[in-house]
Amino acid sequence: MDKKETLKSMRSGKRRLIQVYAALLYNAHIRGFIKGNIYTGNTKIACVPGLNCYSCPGAVGACPLGALQNALASSGKTAGFYVFGILILYGLIFGRTICGYLCPFGLIQELLYKIPTPKIRKGKVTRILSYLKYVILAVFVFGITLWFGLYEKMTVPGFCKYICPAGTLEGAVGLLSNPANSEYFDLLGIIFARKLIIMIFLIILCIFCFRAFCRFLCPLGAIYSLFNRFNIIGVKVDTSKCNGCNACVRNCGMDVHRVGDHECINCGKCVDICSQKAISVKAGSITLKAHYDGEVVGKKRQTFERITQFIALAVLIFALIWFNFLDPSIKKENEAIDLNQETIMQDSSENNPDKAEAEIPIGYEVGCKVKDFEIKCMDGESFSVAGSVGKPVFINLWATYCGPCVKELPIFEEFYNKHKEEIALVAVHSSLIDDDPIEYVNESGLNIPFAIDSEDDTVWNAVGGSSTIPQTIVLDKNGVVIYNKLGSINLDLLEALYTQAVGE
Amino acid sequence: MKLMKKENIIRFLLLVIAVAFIILGIFNGSAKAVLTKAVIICSECIGLG
Fold first, then answer.
1. How would you class A228 by CB atoms within 10 Å of its CB: exposed for 0-12, middle for 13-18, buried for 19 or more?
2. Do B41 and A161 count as a contact with CB atoms less than 8 A apart?
Protein backbone atom coordinates (compact mmCIF):
# COMPACT_ATOMS: atom_id res chain seq x y z
CA MET A 1 0.00 0.00 0.00
CA ASP A 2 1.53 3.38 -0.93
CA LYS A 3 1.76 6.27 1.52
CA LYS A 4 -1.34 8.02 0.10
CA GLU A 5 -3.47 4.88 0.50
CA THR A 6 -2.05 4.30 4.01
CA LEU A 7 -2.97 7.82 5.10
CA LYS A 8 -6.40 7.44 3.47
CA SER A 9 -7.12 4.21 5.35
CA MET A 10 -5.98 5.87 8.60
CA ARG A 11 -8.77 8.40 8.07
CA SER A 12 -11.41 5.66 7.95
CA GLY A 13 -9.72 4.00 10.95
CA LYS A 14 -10.45 7.14 12.96
CA ARG A 15 -14.21 6.53 12.74
CA ARG A 16 -13.72 2.98 14.01
CA LEU A 17 -11.64 4.35 16.89
CA ILE A 18 -14.41 6.79 17.81
CA GLN A 19 -16.97 3.96 17.72
CA VAL A 20 -14.83 1.79 20.03
CA TYR A 21 -14.16 4.76 22.29
CA ALA A 22 -17.90 5.48 22.60
CA ALA A 23 -18.67 1.82 23.34
CA LEU A 24 -16.01 1.77 26.09
CA LEU A 25 -17.15 5.05 27.61
CA TYR A 26 -20.82 4.00 27.68
CA ASN A 27 -19.80 0.71 29.37
CA ALA A 28 -16.98 1.88 31.64
CA HIS A 29 -18.32 -0.12 34.63
CA ILE A 30 -16.05 -3.06 33.81
CA ARG A 31 -16.41 -4.57 37.28
CA GLY A 32 -20.07 -5.21 36.44
CA PHE A 33 -19.01 -7.90 33.97
CA ILE A 34 -16.79 -9.47 36.65
CA LYS A 35 -19.28 -9.25 39.53
CA GLY A 36 -22.39 -9.88 37.41
CA ASN A 37 -24.26 -6.80 38.62
CA ILE A 38 -25.34 -3.53 37.03
CA TYR A 39 -24.12 -0.04 37.84
CA THR A 40 -26.53 1.83 40.13
CA GLY A 41 -24.87 5.23 40.33
CA ASN A 42 -26.23 8.69 39.53
CA THR A 43 -24.76 9.04 36.05
CA LYS A 44 -27.60 6.81 34.88
CA ILE A 45 -29.75 9.93 34.95
CA ALA A 46 -27.97 10.83 31.69
CA CYS A 47 -28.98 9.10 28.47
CA VAL A 48 -26.13 8.05 26.21
CA PRO A 49 -26.75 9.02 22.56
CA GLY A 50 -26.61 5.52 21.04
CA LEU A 51 -28.44 2.24 21.65
CA ASN A 52 -26.90 0.79 24.82
CA CYS A 53 -29.10 -1.20 27.20
CA TYR A 54 -29.00 0.07 30.80
CA SER A 55 -29.16 -3.52 32.00
CA CYS A 56 -25.75 -4.16 30.45
CA PRO A 57 -23.42 -4.83 33.43
CA GLY A 58 -21.05 -2.19 32.10
CA ALA A 59 -23.57 0.56 31.28
CA VAL A 60 -22.99 3.84 33.13
CA GLY A 61 -25.78 5.77 31.41
CA ALA A 62 -29.39 5.19 30.49
CA CYS A 63 -30.55 3.97 27.11
CA PRO A 64 -32.46 6.78 25.35
CA LEU A 65 -34.93 4.33 23.81
CA GLY A 66 -35.58 2.51 27.09
CA ALA A 67 -35.92 5.86 28.88
CA LEU A 68 -38.37 7.07 26.22
CA GLN A 69 -40.56 4.00 26.64
CA ASN A 70 -40.54 4.31 30.42
CA ALA A 71 -41.49 7.98 30.07
CA LEU A 72 -44.34 7.09 27.71
CA ALA A 73 -45.57 4.39 30.12
CA SER A 74 -45.85 7.04 32.86
CA SER A 75 -47.30 9.71 30.60
CA GLY A 76 -50.69 9.41 32.28
CA LYS A 77 -49.11 10.82 35.46
CA THR A 78 -45.97 12.73 34.40
CA ALA A 79 -44.99 14.22 31.05
CA GLY A 80 -41.59 12.85 30.03
CA PHE A 81 -40.14 16.27 29.15
CA TYR A 82 -36.62 15.30 30.12
CA VAL A 83 -36.28 12.38 27.69
CA PHE A 84 -37.99 14.29 24.86
CA GLY A 85 -35.61 17.20 25.48
CA ILE A 86 -32.55 14.92 25.43
CA LEU A 87 -33.63 13.25 22.19
CA ILE A 88 -34.31 16.60 20.49
CA LEU A 89 -30.91 17.92 21.65
CA TYR A 90 -29.03 14.84 20.42
CA GLY A 91 -30.96 14.87 17.16
CA LEU A 92 -30.26 18.55 16.61
CA ILE A 93 -26.52 18.29 17.33
CA PHE A 94 -25.79 14.92 15.72
CA GLY A 95 -28.81 13.50 13.89
CA ARG A 96 -27.84 10.10 12.55
CA THR A 97 -24.14 10.89 13.05
CA ILE A 98 -24.84 9.04 16.29
CA CYS A 99 -25.59 5.91 14.24
CA GLY A 100 -22.37 6.33 12.28
CA TYR A 101 -20.02 7.14 15.14
CA LEU A 102 -21.56 6.76 18.60
CA CYS A 103 -23.67 3.59 18.64
CA PRO A 104 -22.11 0.38 20.03
CA PHE A 105 -24.70 -1.76 18.28
CA GLY A 106 -23.86 -0.05 14.99
CA LEU A 107 -20.23 -0.97 15.61
CA ILE A 108 -21.14 -4.61 16.25
CA GLN A 109 -23.11 -4.75 13.00
CA GLU A 110 -20.24 -3.27 10.98
CA LEU A 111 -17.78 -5.76 12.48
CA LEU A 112 -20.13 -8.63 11.63
CA TYR A 113 -20.37 -7.38 8.05
CA LYS A 114 -16.60 -7.68 7.72
CA ILE A 115 -16.91 -11.50 7.83
CA PRO A 116 -16.16 -12.53 4.25
CA THR A 117 -19.37 -13.93 2.77
CA PRO A 118 -21.54 -13.08 -0.26
CA LYS A 119 -23.38 -9.86 0.52
CA ILE A 120 -26.97 -8.74 -0.04
CA ARG A 121 -26.84 -5.59 -2.15
CA LYS A 122 -29.24 -2.76 -1.54
CA GLY A 123 -32.07 -2.19 -4.00
CA LYS A 124 -35.78 -1.46 -4.24
CA VAL A 125 -36.67 -4.11 -1.63
CA THR A 126 -34.21 -2.82 0.97
CA ARG A 127 -35.34 0.73 0.28
CA ILE A 128 -38.93 -0.25 1.07
CA LEU A 129 -37.80 -2.24 4.11
CA SER A 130 -35.98 0.85 5.43
CA TYR A 131 -39.41 2.35 6.25
CA LEU A 132 -40.20 -0.61 8.53
CA LYS A 133 -38.30 1.06 11.40
CA TYR A 134 -40.90 3.85 11.44
CA VAL A 135 -43.63 1.20 11.83
CA ILE A 136 -41.62 -0.38 14.69
CA LEU A 137 -41.32 3.06 16.28
CA ALA A 138 -45.06 3.71 15.99
CA VAL A 139 -46.26 0.28 17.12
CA PHE A 140 -43.73 -1.01 19.64
CA VAL A 141 -42.22 2.15 21.11
CA PHE A 142 -45.33 4.35 21.14
CA GLY A 143 -48.38 2.13 20.56
CA ILE A 144 -47.86 -0.80 22.93
CA THR A 145 -46.19 1.30 25.62
CA LEU A 146 -48.89 4.00 25.64
CA TRP A 147 -51.70 1.44 25.53
CA PHE A 148 -50.47 -0.46 28.57
CA GLY A 149 -49.44 2.71 30.38
CA LEU A 150 -52.68 4.62 29.91
CA TYR A 151 -55.30 1.86 29.90
CA GLU A 152 -53.80 -1.11 31.75
CA LYS A 153 -51.82 1.11 34.17
CA MET A 154 -48.78 -1.10 33.65
CA THR A 155 -45.26 -0.34 32.41
CA VAL A 156 -44.63 -2.41 29.29
CA PRO A 157 -41.77 -1.04 27.17
CA GLY A 158 -42.88 -2.71 23.95
CA PHE A 159 -39.61 -2.55 21.99
CA CYS A 160 -37.38 -3.45 24.94
CA LYS A 161 -39.58 -6.34 26.02
CA TYR A 162 -40.32 -7.92 22.68
CA ILE A 163 -37.60 -7.01 20.17
CA CYS A 164 -34.46 -5.14 21.20
CA PRO A 165 -31.44 -7.28 20.24
CA ALA A 166 -29.07 -4.85 21.98
CA GLY A 167 -30.91 -5.51 25.24
CA THR A 168 -30.76 -9.27 24.69
CA LEU A 169 -27.06 -9.24 23.81
CA GLU A 170 -25.75 -6.65 26.25
CA GLY A 171 -28.29 -7.01 29.06
CA ALA A 172 -29.76 -10.48 29.23
CA VAL A 173 -26.78 -12.38 27.83
CA GLY A 174 -24.38 -10.04 29.62
CA LEU A 175 -26.00 -10.90 32.97
CA LEU A 176 -26.64 -14.58 32.25
CA SER A 177 -23.05 -15.23 31.19
CA ASN A 178 -21.81 -14.52 34.71
CA PRO A 179 -21.90 -17.58 37.05
CA ALA A 180 -23.00 -15.30 39.92
CA ASN A 181 -26.34 -14.90 38.12
CA SER A 182 -27.17 -18.59 37.64
CA GLU A 183 -30.55 -17.96 39.34
CA TYR A 184 -31.53 -15.77 36.35
CA PHE A 185 -31.93 -18.93 34.28
CA ASP A 186 -35.07 -19.71 36.31
CA LEU A 187 -36.61 -16.54 34.90
CA LEU A 188 -36.26 -17.55 31.29
CA GLY A 189 -39.41 -18.31 29.36
CA ILE A 190 -41.18 -17.48 26.15
CA ILE A 191 -40.23 -13.77 26.16
CA PHE A 192 -36.54 -14.56 26.33
CA ALA A 193 -36.83 -17.37 23.78
CA ARG A 194 -38.47 -15.04 21.25
CA LYS A 195 -35.94 -12.27 21.82
CA LEU A 196 -33.04 -14.69 21.59
CA ILE A 197 -34.29 -15.97 18.23
CA ILE A 198 -34.63 -12.38 16.99
CA MET A 199 -31.12 -11.55 18.18
CA ILE A 200 -29.55 -14.62 16.55
CA PHE A 201 -31.45 -13.97 13.32
CA LEU A 202 -30.26 -10.35 13.21
CA ILE A 203 -26.66 -11.28 13.98
CA ILE A 204 -26.66 -13.73 11.07
CA LEU A 205 -28.43 -11.24 8.81
CA CYS A 206 -25.88 -8.52 9.61
CA ILE A 207 -23.12 -10.78 8.29
CA PHE A 208 -24.75 -10.70 4.86
CA CYS A 209 -26.57 -7.37 4.89
CA PHE A 210 -24.87 -4.11 5.86
CA ARG A 211 -26.29 -2.74 9.17
CA ALA A 212 -29.54 -4.67 8.75
CA PHE A 213 -30.87 -3.66 12.17
CA CYS A 214 -30.01 0.04 11.66
CA ARG A 215 -31.58 0.15 8.26
CA PHE A 216 -34.77 -1.82 8.82
CA LEU A 217 -35.62 -2.02 12.52
CA CYS A 218 -33.95 0.54 14.79
CA PRO A 219 -36.54 2.96 16.18
CA LEU A 220 -33.80 5.16 17.66
CA GLY A 221 -32.34 5.58 14.19
CA ALA A 222 -35.87 6.39 13.01
CA ILE A 223 -36.11 9.16 15.63
CA TYR A 224 -32.71 10.65 14.80
CA SER A 225 -33.43 10.46 11.06
CA LEU A 226 -36.16 13.08 11.57
CA PHE A 227 -33.39 15.54 12.48
CA ASN A 228 -30.95 14.63 9.71
CA ARG A 229 -31.84 17.73 7.74
CA PHE A 230 -31.05 20.05 10.65
CA ASN A 231 -28.21 18.32 12.49
CA ILE A 232 -25.21 20.51 13.17
CA ILE A 233 -22.54 17.77 12.91
CA GLY A 234 -22.76 15.62 9.84
CA VAL A 235 -22.16 15.21 6.14
CA LYS A 236 -22.83 18.31 4.02
CA VAL A 237 -22.93 18.61 0.26
CA ASP A 238 -21.77 21.70 -1.67
CA THR A 239 -24.44 21.60 -4.36
CA SER A 240 -22.51 24.12 -6.47
CA LYS A 241 -19.74 21.52 -6.94
CA CYS A 242 -21.96 18.43 -7.27
CA ASN A 243 -22.27 17.11 -10.85
CA GLY A 244 -25.02 14.59 -10.05
CA CYS A 245 -22.91 11.51 -10.86
CA ASN A 246 -24.37 9.69 -7.82
CA ALA A 247 -21.11 7.89 -7.06
CA CYS A 248 -21.74 8.75 -3.40
CA VAL A 249 -25.16 7.05 -3.40
CA ARG A 250 -23.97 4.00 -5.34
CA ASN A 251 -21.07 3.40 -2.96
CA CYS A 252 -23.08 3.97 0.20
CA GLY A 253 -24.15 0.91 2.19
CA MET A 254 -27.31 2.63 3.47
CA ASP A 255 -30.50 3.11 1.46
CA VAL A 256 -29.92 6.78 0.75
CA HIS A 257 -31.55 8.68 -2.10
CA ARG A 258 -28.99 11.43 -1.62
CA VAL A 259 -26.17 12.10 0.84
CA GLY A 260 -27.49 13.58 4.09
CA ASP A 261 -31.09 12.35 3.74
CA HIS A 262 -32.95 10.47 6.50
CA GLU A 263 -31.10 7.19 5.76
CA CYS A 264 -27.64 8.72 5.88
CA ILE A 265 -25.63 7.79 8.97
CA ASN A 266 -23.08 10.56 8.25
CA CYS A 267 -20.17 8.10 8.27
CA GLY A 268 -18.31 10.25 5.75
CA LYS A 269 -17.26 7.38 3.48
CA CYS A 270 -18.59 9.36 0.50
CA VAL A 271 -16.22 12.28 1.23
CA ASP A 272 -13.27 10.56 -0.45
CA ILE A 273 -15.42 8.92 -3.14
CA CYS A 274 -16.70 12.25 -4.52
CA SER A 275 -14.48 13.26 -7.44
CA GLN A 276 -15.84 16.82 -7.32
CA LYS A 277 -14.80 17.29 -3.64
CA ALA A 278 -18.37 18.42 -3.01
CA ILE A 279 -18.86 16.44 0.22
CA SER A 280 -17.40 17.11 3.63
CA VAL A 281 -18.14 16.32 7.27
CA LYS A 282 -18.87 19.54 9.11
CA ALA A 283 -19.67 20.78 12.59
CA GLY A 284 -21.55 23.94 11.73
CA SER A 285 -19.13 25.88 9.57
CA ILE A 286 -16.03 23.97 10.78
CA THR A 287 -14.83 21.26 8.40
CA LEU A 288 -13.99 18.07 10.27
CA LYS A 289 -13.26 15.93 7.23
CA ALA A 290 -12.76 17.03 3.64
CA HIS A 291 -11.78 15.17 0.46
CA TYR A 292 -8.24 13.78 0.82
CA ASP A 293 -5.93 14.40 -2.11
CA GLY A 294 -2.58 13.87 -0.53
CA GLU A 295 -2.13 17.26 1.11
CA VAL A 296 -0.26 17.36 4.39
CA VAL A 297 -2.35 18.32 7.40
CA GLY A 298 -1.43 21.77 8.73
CA LYS A 299 0.46 22.14 12.04
CA LYS A 300 -2.38 24.03 13.71
CA ARG A 301 -4.80 21.27 12.77
CA GLN A 302 -2.37 18.59 13.94
CA THR A 303 -1.96 20.29 17.32
CA PHE A 304 -5.71 20.65 17.71
CA GLU A 305 -6.23 16.96 16.90
CA ARG A 306 -3.52 15.89 19.37
CA ILE A 307 -5.03 17.99 22.15
CA THR A 308 -8.49 16.54 21.43
CA GLN A 309 -7.11 12.99 21.47
CA PHE A 310 -5.29 13.65 24.75
CA ILE A 311 -8.44 15.02 26.40
CA ALA A 312 -10.50 12.10 25.11
CA LEU A 313 -7.98 9.59 26.47
CA ALA A 314 -7.87 11.38 29.84
CA VAL A 315 -11.68 11.31 30.04
CA LEU A 316 -11.75 7.58 29.30
CA ILE A 317 -9.07 6.75 31.87
CA PHE A 318 -10.84 8.88 34.47
CA ALA A 319 -14.16 7.15 33.67
CA LEU A 320 -12.61 3.69 34.02
CA ILE A 321 -11.11 4.59 37.42
CA TRP A 322 -14.22 6.40 38.65
CA PHE A 323 -16.82 3.81 37.66
CA ASN A 324 -14.81 0.86 38.94
CA PHE A 325 -13.23 2.16 42.14
CA LEU A 326 -14.30 5.61 43.28
CA ASP A 327 -18.01 6.03 42.55
CA PRO A 328 -20.11 6.31 45.75
CA SER A 329 -22.41 3.52 44.56
CA ILE A 330 -19.39 1.16 44.40
CA LYS A 331 -18.45 2.10 47.97
CA LYS A 332 -22.08 1.54 49.06
CA GLU A 333 -22.06 -1.89 47.41
CA ASN A 334 -18.79 -2.84 49.14
CA GLU A 335 -20.09 -1.59 52.50
CA ALA A 336 -23.23 -3.73 52.19
CA ILE A 337 -21.11 -6.81 51.44
CA ASP A 338 -18.72 -6.05 54.37
CA LEU A 339 -21.64 -5.50 56.75
CA ASN A 340 -23.21 -8.77 55.73
CA GLN A 341 -19.95 -10.67 56.23
CA GLU A 342 -19.33 -8.92 59.55
CA THR A 343 -22.78 -9.96 60.74
CA ILE A 344 -22.09 -13.58 59.74
CA MET A 345 -18.79 -13.52 61.65
CA GLN A 346 -20.29 -11.92 64.77
CA ASP A 347 -23.10 -14.36 64.98
CA SER A 348 -20.99 -17.44 64.56
CA SER A 349 -18.67 -16.37 67.35
CA GLU A 350 -18.38 -18.59 70.43
CA ASN A 351 -19.96 -15.90 72.63
CA ASN A 352 -23.40 -16.87 71.36
CA PRO A 353 -25.10 -18.81 74.18
CA ASP A 354 -27.36 -20.77 71.84
CA LYS A 355 -24.89 -22.81 69.88
CA ALA A 356 -27.52 -24.42 67.65
CA GLU A 357 -28.76 -20.96 66.65
CA ALA A 358 -25.19 -19.81 66.12
CA GLU A 359 -24.66 -22.56 63.54
CA ILE A 360 -27.23 -20.94 61.22
CA PRO A 361 -25.37 -18.13 59.44
CA ILE A 362 -26.98 -14.72 59.02
CA GLY A 363 -27.56 -13.90 55.41
CA TYR A 364 -30.12 -13.95 52.64
CA GLU A 365 -29.31 -17.18 50.85
CA VAL A 366 -31.35 -20.35 51.31
CA GLY A 367 -30.46 -21.90 54.67
CA CYS A 368 -29.43 -18.57 56.22
CA LYS A 369 -31.29 -16.48 58.75
CA VAL A 370 -32.25 -13.04 57.51
CA LYS A 371 -30.80 -10.13 59.47
CA ASP A 372 -33.60 -8.57 61.46
CA PHE A 373 -35.13 -5.36 60.18
CA GLU A 374 -38.14 -3.28 61.10
CA ILE A 375 -40.16 -1.27 58.64
CA LYS A 376 -43.27 0.91 58.89
CA CYS A 377 -46.10 -0.22 56.64
CA MET A 378 -48.41 2.14 54.78
CA ASP A 379 -51.28 1.24 57.13
CA GLY A 380 -49.26 2.41 60.14
CA GLU A 381 -48.39 -1.05 61.45
CA SER A 382 -44.77 -2.13 61.92
CA PHE A 383 -43.28 -5.19 60.30
CA SER A 384 -40.17 -6.92 61.60
CA VAL A 385 -38.58 -10.33 61.09
CA ALA A 386 -38.10 -10.82 64.85
CA GLY A 387 -41.75 -9.95 65.46
CA SER A 388 -42.85 -12.59 62.93
CA VAL A 389 -41.03 -15.57 64.47
CA GLY A 390 -43.40 -18.51 64.71
CA LYS A 391 -45.00 -17.69 61.35
CA PRO A 392 -43.80 -18.19 57.77
CA VAL A 393 -42.75 -14.84 56.31
CA PHE A 394 -43.34 -13.75 52.70
CA ILE A 395 -41.50 -10.67 51.47
CA ASN A 396 -42.09 -9.33 47.96
CA LEU A 397 -39.86 -6.66 46.43
CA TRP A 398 -41.70 -4.59 43.82
CA ALA A 399 -42.10 -1.18 42.19
CA THR A 400 -44.97 0.65 40.50
CA TYR A 401 -42.95 0.95 37.29
CA CYS A 402 -42.42 -2.80 37.02
CA GLY A 403 -45.19 -4.43 34.95
CA PRO A 404 -44.73 -8.03 36.18
CA CYS A 405 -44.50 -6.79 39.80
CA VAL A 406 -47.83 -5.01 39.54
CA LYS A 407 -49.37 -7.97 37.74
CA GLU A 408 -48.55 -10.41 40.55
CA LEU A 409 -49.75 -8.28 43.47
CA PRO A 410 -53.35 -9.61 43.20
CA ILE A 411 -51.89 -13.13 43.50
CA PHE A 412 -50.24 -12.14 46.77
CA GLU A 413 -53.52 -10.64 47.92
CA GLU A 414 -55.42 -13.87 47.19
CA PHE A 415 -52.76 -15.88 49.02
CA TYR A 416 -52.72 -13.46 51.95
CA ASN A 417 -56.52 -13.50 52.33
CA LYS A 418 -56.44 -17.31 52.52
CA HIS A 419 -53.65 -17.53 55.16
CA LYS A 420 -53.95 -14.18 56.92
CA GLU A 421 -53.78 -15.54 60.50
CA GLU A 422 -50.96 -18.00 59.81
CA ILE A 423 -48.42 -15.92 57.89
CA ALA A 424 -46.61 -12.59 57.93
CA LEU A 425 -46.46 -10.88 54.53
CA VAL A 426 -45.18 -7.55 53.30
CA ALA A 427 -44.74 -6.09 49.81
CA VAL A 428 -41.81 -3.67 49.95
CA HIS A 429 -41.48 -0.98 47.28
CA SER A 430 -37.98 0.06 46.23
CA SER A 431 -36.63 3.19 47.89
CA LEU A 432 -36.30 4.60 44.38
CA ILE A 433 -39.74 6.04 43.71
CA ASP A 434 -41.28 7.23 40.47
CA ASP A 435 -45.09 7.24 40.66
CA ASP A 436 -46.32 7.64 44.23
CA PRO A 437 -46.63 4.06 45.61
CA ILE A 438 -49.11 5.19 48.31
CA GLU A 439 -51.39 6.67 45.65
CA TYR A 440 -50.98 3.51 43.59
CA VAL A 441 -51.88 1.25 46.53
CA ASN A 442 -54.92 3.37 47.44
CA GLU A 443 -56.17 3.32 43.85
CA SER A 444 -55.56 -0.41 43.45
CA GLY A 445 -57.65 -1.33 46.50
CA LEU A 446 -55.25 -4.17 47.39
CA ASN A 447 -55.32 -4.99 51.09
CA ILE A 448 -51.96 -6.64 51.74
CA PRO A 449 -49.35 -4.95 53.95
CA PHE A 450 -47.32 -2.53 51.84
CA ALA A 451 -44.16 -0.66 52.81
CA ILE A 452 -41.55 1.55 51.13
CA ASP A 453 -37.92 0.69 51.75
CA SER A 454 -35.84 3.25 53.62
CA GLU A 455 -33.39 5.52 51.81
CA ASP A 456 -30.47 3.34 52.87
CA ASP A 457 -32.20 0.24 51.46
CA THR A 458 -32.57 -1.53 54.83
CA VAL A 459 -34.89 -4.26 53.55
CA TRP A 460 -33.19 -4.62 50.15
CA ASN A 461 -29.82 -5.14 51.85
CA ALA A 462 -31.18 -7.52 54.50
CA VAL A 463 -32.85 -9.85 52.00
CA GLY A 464 -30.25 -9.59 49.22
CA GLY A 465 -32.48 -7.48 46.99
CA SER A 466 -31.29 -7.35 43.42
CA SER A 467 -31.39 -4.54 40.86
CA THR A 468 -33.84 -6.74 38.96
CA ILE A 469 -37.40 -7.16 40.18
CA PRO A 470 -39.80 -8.69 41.11
CA GLN A 471 -38.15 -10.74 43.82
CA THR A 472 -39.78 -12.94 46.46
CA ILE A 473 -38.21 -14.13 49.69
CA VAL A 474 -39.82 -16.74 51.93
CA LEU A 475 -38.71 -17.53 55.49
CA ASP A 476 -39.86 -20.50 57.57
CA LYS A 477 -41.27 -20.20 61.10
CA ASN A 478 -37.73 -19.82 62.50
CA GLY A 479 -36.75 -17.01 60.15
CA VAL A 480 -34.58 -19.24 57.93
CA VAL A 481 -34.64 -18.50 54.20
CA ILE A 482 -36.27 -21.29 52.19
CA TYR A 483 -36.78 -19.32 48.95
CA ASN A 484 -35.13 -16.21 47.51
CA LYS A 485 -35.61 -15.77 43.79
CA LEU A 486 -36.10 -13.20 41.09
CA GLY A 487 -39.04 -13.26 38.73
CA SER A 488 -42.80 -13.56 38.79
CA ILE A 489 -44.52 -16.00 41.11
CA ASN A 490 -47.82 -17.85 40.90
CA LEU A 491 -50.38 -19.03 43.45
CA ASP A 492 -49.38 -22.71 43.21
CA LEU A 493 -45.78 -21.90 44.04
CA LEU A 494 -46.83 -19.69 46.96
CA GLU A 495 -48.97 -22.54 48.35
CA ALA A 496 -46.10 -25.01 47.93
CA LEU A 497 -43.74 -22.64 49.74
CA TYR A 498 -46.28 -22.18 52.52
CA THR A 499 -46.50 -25.94 52.97
CA GLN A 500 -42.70 -26.18 53.06
CA ALA A 501 -42.38 -23.26 55.51
CA VAL A 502 -44.98 -24.66 57.89
CA GLY A 503 -43.54 -28.14 57.71
CA GLU A 504 -40.03 -26.99 58.80
CA MET B 1 -29.79 31.68 1.22
CA LYS B 2 -33.47 31.92 2.21
CA LEU B 3 -33.55 28.14 2.79
CA MET B 4 -30.46 28.32 5.04
CA LYS B 5 -32.02 31.09 7.07
CA LYS B 6 -35.21 29.05 7.47
CA GLU B 7 -33.16 26.00 8.55
CA ASN B 8 -31.23 28.07 11.08
CA ILE B 9 -34.46 29.40 12.56
CA ILE B 10 -35.73 25.82 12.92
CA ARG B 11 -32.42 24.80 14.55
CA PHE B 12 -32.68 27.65 17.00
CA LEU B 13 -36.28 26.76 17.86
CA LEU B 14 -35.38 23.11 18.36
CA LEU B 15 -32.53 24.12 20.65
CA VAL B 16 -34.82 26.30 22.75
CA ILE B 17 -37.44 23.53 22.96
CA ALA B 18 -34.81 20.92 23.91
CA VAL B 19 -33.30 23.03 26.68
CA ALA B 20 -36.75 24.05 27.96
CA PHE B 21 -37.89 20.41 28.04
CA ILE B 22 -34.74 19.29 29.87
CA ILE B 23 -35.17 21.99 32.51
CA LEU B 24 -38.90 21.22 32.84
CA GLY B 25 -38.05 17.54 33.13
CA ILE B 26 -35.63 18.17 35.98
CA PHE B 27 -38.35 20.02 37.88
CA ASN B 28 -41.27 17.69 37.14
CA GLY B 29 -39.38 14.55 38.20
CA SER B 30 -39.06 12.93 34.78
CA ALA B 31 -35.25 13.22 34.98
CA LYS B 32 -35.18 11.34 38.29
CA ALA B 33 -37.54 8.76 36.77
CA VAL B 34 -34.87 7.97 34.13
CA LEU B 35 -32.37 7.21 36.91
CA THR B 36 -34.87 5.17 38.93
CA LYS B 37 -35.84 2.93 36.03
CA ALA B 38 -32.24 2.48 34.88
CA VAL B 39 -31.14 1.32 38.33
CA ILE B 40 -34.03 -0.91 39.47
CA ILE B 41 -34.93 -2.91 36.42
CA CYS B 42 -38.02 -4.94 35.70
CA SER B 43 -36.82 -8.38 34.59
CA GLU B 44 -39.33 -8.81 31.79
CA CYS B 45 -38.51 -5.36 30.44
CA ILE B 46 -35.05 -6.62 29.50
CA GLY B 47 -36.36 -9.89 28.11
CA LEU B 48 -35.81 -12.08 31.16
CA GLY B 49 -39.19 -13.73 31.28
1. buried
2. no
